[in-house]
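Q: For a teaching handout, I want to show students what a protein-ligand complex looks like in token form. Below are the inputs, and the small molecule is S-adenosyl-L-homocysteine. Please produce the holo structure.
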Amino acid sequence: MEHKRCISSLTVEELAAEMKAMGQPAFRAKQIFHWVHQKLVTDFAAMTDQPKALLARLEEAFYIAAPQIERRQQAKDGTVKYLLRMADGNCIETVVMRYHYGCTVCVSTQVGCRMGCRFCASTQAGRVRDLEAGEICSEIYTAQKDIGERISHIVLMGIGEPLDNFDQVMKFLSLISSPDGVNIGMRNISLSTCGIVPQIDRLAQRKLQLTLSISLHAPNDAIRSQMMPVNNAYPVAQLMDAVRRYQDTTGRRVSFEYSMVRGVNDSDACARQLAGLIRGMGAHVNLIPINPVDGSPYSATDAENVRRFQAKLTSLGVNATVRRRLGSEISAACGQLRREEMVQAQHTQPDGKGDAYETCREN
Ligand code: SAH
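A: Here is the structure, written as tokens, with S-adenosyl-L-homocysteine included.
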């Protein structure tokens, strides 16, 4: 597989250039794009309107991203979690959640992660590699075919930091929202980031209609730096400035994720400080009790205190909801399934030792 390129990562324009190089008519580019991104075939032989000789040449140079379902877990609430094995043998996680308005897929954007958040299983062994645009698409196609229902919404909240794989994630967004593909509208897509400020500014320039979600998790630097090393590089005040610039540039409201950890970020004082940060922005806060992972010192705030925190925010003029914990009995928290698999198999060798932002403390 190593020498072959992933054809699922190519745009119609890029496919047209390949067709030209192969002496083929340009219209074949769109036909092939349809096969990969609309009819979701995973085999060149299925492209029945293409000349046999062309298919043989494509087969030699390319592969279609078609991950194997290594493990599949289904929760009582309908949430399905997949451990997917990519062409190079690496595993990632993809989750389908069913809501009244349709099916949402939560996709991974990297194999592993180098952001080092203390509560997150995805980052415990660092980052192995970035996913390609077509591989991210294939997570959605694999899930859609498996459940037999159309995917209407996407959240980039699986393994990896989307803004740490900027170019491939931007390409993924254009492939997945293409009218020649599955055509999932940008307004149905949420991108979640731990807060890499320069990349938030870069994203703002694209003026996309997606929802940007910020993993804030703490209202001040003392607590946030302890939970998330990225805060050493881009502290809360800088992050909030970037969020305001993002809202000004795109005209889109941002939402905040706040995972609640008992005795760490769940006090009344935290609620007041948080309200002070985001009041008046029209932004929304999603509260979710932390899902404790092995090797992490954190435990979850109990439901009653989450409610109290929410009520406090509401009384201070901040719109907050408590996230339903879909599929918590199937280790649906970010990276837990892959972690289990790695502990069992221990075949993946991460490149990054330690956290990407650990060194930033000296800066
Ligand atoms: N890297 C991106 C997206 C992936 S994580 C980001 O940081 O936003 C998706 C969300 O789940 C983030 O808000 C992340 O902080 C949160 N998260 C990760 N592990 C968690 C856990 N064990 N319990 C609760 N939330 C968790």
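A: Two things your students might notice: The pocket of S-adenosyl-L-homocysteine is lined by residues 117, 119-120, 157, 161, 192-194, 215, 257, 259, 288, 290-291, 293, 333-334 (CB under 6 Å). The chain has a mean pLDDT of 91.
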